[in-house]
Amino acid sequence: MEARLTDELASMVTGARRRALRDGDRQLDTAHLLHSLMESDPEVRATFDSGPQVARVLGYLVQRSIGYGLRWQGSVEDSGAVPVMTQPGWSPSALTAMEHALRRAAARGEERAAGRDLLAALAADPECRAIEVLTHAGVDAASLADRLREPARHA
Fold this sequence. Notes:
Blueprint: H1 7-22, H2 30-40, H3 42-45, H4 51-68, H5 92-107, H6 115-123, H7 129-136, H8 141-148
Helix pairs in contact: 1-2, 2-4, 2-6, 2-7, 5-6, 6-8
């Protein structure tokens, strides 16, 4: 799967995988993906309404490993979508988001998905953990999804 991602997004996925292991989670989930996106991709951060909103999202994500996300530990994130791919160590929702990101990139003629593609995929799944984090941080997930509907062109 990483071969179909931009180098930046593949690096971000590697970081999300490390974060999941460090947090003691059995699977990489959509909140891990969101955390790495927010930390590493300026284009993703630019889609949010303000600097304070980005700080609130990152604050909730940091809290995940110290209590906020402990209720998720040991459980499988599954928002009901059935992923086509299987990948050991990934939640079904995270795989579905990656598939959506790859389809979005392909729809605009790109061979590789980028961070904005993945953020759009996360925003499109109202049942995923990433949306729960965004909602708690005061982000209007529906508005974010609307802003991301038009794919950006990447060089």
